[in-house]
Specification:
Layout: H1 13-22, H2 29-41, E1 45-48, H3 55-66, E2 70-74, H4 81-84, E3 86-88, H5 90-102, H6 108-115, E4 121-123, H7 125-128, E5 139-143, H8 150-162, E6 164-167, E7 171-174, E8 180-185, H9 193-196, E9 200-203, H10 209-219, H11 225-238, H12 249-261, H13 269-274, H14 276-279, H15 283-288, H16 291-308
Parallel strand pairs: 1-8, 1-9, 2-5, 5-8
Antiparallel strand pairs: 3-4, 6-7
Length: about 300
């Protein structure tokens, strides 16, 4: 992503809404309020919600519109300090030791100091986020924290408390200016209250039809006006069905793009059935929407749109 020139954080909620709009993110006032406060107070922002509703995109938009570097820590089961903070380049250290031995270097203490210097240090996202940057503190995205275990969550709590980490061989690295921290969770498990208390919290839910239509027309401007309305109302209706995983906004945008590529101008049962794999990611969900069910939803959508005219 190409960064814009550095900008100062917004000075009001209205400026925050405008900042989101510049990044083509269709946000509402509650989100702009908590985002403004997080930037103003220097607190991490904890975003929770279903997958695909735009949580990660908020960090990307902040990076782009504020001209800050985006550092992303993608969480997963088993994530540990060596992958999140730092590790030593053991292969390079061994080569340096062998070269020193071949040259007859006998000062063991100096050799140990040399191989545990910064040039052999592999900096992972959390350590990178503590380093100074001419453009200003970076945006640190800790994505899908709920995928990690409680041990890593406890370690992260310590890092966020003082924005510092200790490397035994080098000492303590502390951020001169704390990064802008955005933490996301899909709520596959509960995050401990101790970490949430360090953050400002916001639930990112599914948008209503009007805002989702605005999102589609902003992100997929080539889609026909009538088709965009049908897409949004179909997805909104589909979320009320008994499906294992309802489509998020990301799937709505994918579907709009796919239908645009197929030169579709209006939804019909055959097209919907053929493209359900763009919206739904589980075969059981797709199987539930047999031809009759698709027809029923399409009829409801058309009735809703006629009533709104």
């Amino acid at each position: 992503m190409t960064m814009n020139p550095p900008r100062v954080p917004p000075a009001s909620i209205e400026e925050t809404l405008a900042l989101l709009a510049v990044g083509r993110y269709v946000g509402d006032r509650p989100l702009a309020t908590v985002l403004f406060l997080a930037l103003r107070m220097g607190r991490p922002l904890f975003l929770e919600g279903e997958a695909g509703v735009g949580k990660t995109e908020i960090a990307k938009v902040l990076s782009e519109t504020l001209g800050r570097r985006l550092i992303r820590l993608q969480c997963y089961e088993g994530l540990d300090v060596s992958a999140a903070v730092y590790e030593w380049n053991y292969a390079a250290q061994m080569i340096a030791i062998r070269l020193a031995e071949a040259e007859g270097a006998g000062d063991r203490e100096r050799l140990e100091h040399d191989v545990f210097s910064e040039r052999f240090l592999i900096k992972r996202p959390l350590l990178q986020a503590l380093e100074p940057d001419p453009a200003g503190p970076p945006v640190l995205l800790i994505d899908e924290l709920d995928r990690t275990d409680e041990a890593f969550e406890a370690f992260l709590l310590e890092v966020l408390a003082d924005f510092q980490v200790t490397i035994p061989e080098l000492g303590t690295v502390k951020a001169a200016r704390p990064p802008i921290v955005v933490i996301t969770s899909n709520r596959t498990r509960e995050i401990h209250d101790a970490l949430k208390r360090r953050c400002l919290y916001h639930w990112v839910g599914y948008p209503d039809a009007a805002r989702e239509l605005h999102i589609v027309r902003t992100k997929v401007p080539g889609v026909a006006k009538k088709l965009s309305q049908e897409i949004v109302h179909f997805v909104q209706r589909l979320r009320r069905e008994d499906v294992f995983k309802a489509p998020g906004v990301a799937e709505t945008l994918d579907w709009a793009s796919a239908l645009s590529e197929l030169d579709v101008v209006a939804l019909d049962p055959a097209t919907v059935s053929d493209t359900l794999g763009v919206l739904l990611k589980y075969q059981d969900d797709i199987a539930r929407l047999d031809g009759g069910k698709v027809n029923e939803i399409l009829n409801d959508v058309r009735a809703e749109l006629r009533a709104a005219e």
